[in-house]
Amino acid sequence: MKRICLIISIIAMFANCSNNKNEINLPVTRTFDCDVLVIGGGPAGLSAAICSARKGAKTILAERNGCLGGMATSGLVAPLMSSTTPDGKTLIIRGFFEEFVDSMVAVGGAIHPLKSEIGSLTAYRDKGHHGLTTFDYECFKKTAEDFCKDAGVELLYHLLFVKTDTKDNKITAAYFATKAGIWKITAKNYIDCTGDGDVAESAGVPYIYGDGNGDIQASSLFFTVRNVNKAAMDAHNEECKKKNDFEGQFYMREILAAREAGEFPIWRQKIALFENLDGTYTVNMAQNDSVDGLDPKQITDAEVTGREQAAIIVKFLRKYVKGCENCELAATADQLGVRETRRIDGVYTVTAEDAKNSVKYPDPIFCCANSMDIHRKGRVEYVARNTNEPYYVPYRALLPKNIDNMLVAGRCASAERPVMAAIRVIPPCFAMGQAAGTAAAMSVAKNTSPKELNTEELVKTLKEDGVYLP
User: Fold this and answer.
1) Are 336 and 306 in contact (CB under 8 A)?
2) How far is CA 438 from CA 56, 143, 224, 273, in A?
């Protein structure tokens, strides 16, 4: 009998080996089940998972890295961009984001955005840089994990999303590659927080890549430097401000001279160093153009190039920038900063005209005032608005076409390119995550799909949870 079973097993094994050498079949080694599965543990994903679990849904958060935070931690992106009105006086991205920031502030791990001052914390930039949140990377990681534990989120690190199963316009399962084989997770509702819309694409949701014609925003590799003389940098900045010398303030002439001398083969036109809580500075200057954020080979090449650029930039800083004469490279990001890949085709697409004119919706989930800036080679293009009022994002922008039990949150949501260039930054992603997680849990509790959820009740719940919707 044992011999017969062995023969059957061998036959089955060979039967699963496709004649197509470009295909493989792998067994599922472990399965999980939950109410809400959140895929991706960046700012949108951690917010979605925590807010879902707080509403009583059994929630799993699957993340490919070994920590939460995505670009805020693995990407070394700091500070968190504006969460206030343009003048920095009114906090408008609130709710879970404010709670998260307050928790970091309480342990000395962040500066509240309403207390942020233009200066070294903002890389001496004024326009669009009021209301930033300076924070500590490790504090962010621990705060996120503590919130997950308190809410009852089941964390699963080191899971790389592979594919979905779908049936009758619903996802029935999601599969992940792990060191322990292929894991399968089933849920009632799924939230795509991958940034790239990986889950949505796998499920057959239509999407737009970049500008729709192949153009894609530039990507950046952040890094940090130590041994910066803050007093010297501050003094130089004040001297240039008195002279109204904008180019001198950001060493634009020195960059041009260094580029002509072959010492700065990077297209960035201004220095950008943001002071951190520990005295190091985050540098946003290493950049690559036309990198396909869906292609691991191109991402690899960009990360290698980014580290090469970091070494060049440090040499430039030491030679030309006052206060950086003795600076040293402290760390480079583990993850490339990809600004743009897929944007889903949702039930509603937020248009640039909507944002320009602060259009009001019946189903608003948050408001913001972040600038619409598109990063291109050699320049950043800004899209002007027609009003100073905050603009809104509706719940429908999180609902993909074709699939009924999924939401998206983060930079793969349904919005035109200029709008996504604004709401892809971290505070708006927190807000989208809160809305998606809350909606997913509410729809489970009511035994309905996210698309059939009563949006008046959702908006009421978000307001009760601190979301600012004037």
Assistant:
1) yes
2) 10, 20, 35, 36
d(CA 59, CA 193): 14
Q: What is the pLDDT at residue 4?
A: 46
Name residues of the chain where pLDDT drops below 50.
Answer: 1-15, 17-18
Fold of 31-118+130-213+340-464: FAD/NAD(P)-binding domain (3.50.50)
How far apart CA 414 and CA 367 sit, in angstroms, is 15
Which residue ranges make up each domain of the chain? 31-118+130-213+340-464, 219-332
Tokens of residue 100, six digits: 């998260």
| Token pair for 437 | 């997680």
* Residue-level pLDDT at 11: 38
| Residues 6+ positions from 213 with CB-CB distance below 8 Å | none
This prediction's pTM? 0.94
**CATH fold match for the domains 31-118+130-213+340-464 and 219-332:** no
- What's at 122, amino acid-wise? T
Alpha helices in 42-126 (DSSP H): 43-54, 95-106
- CATH architecture of the domain 219-332 equals 2-Layer Sandwich (3.30)
Residue 330: predicted pLDDT: 98
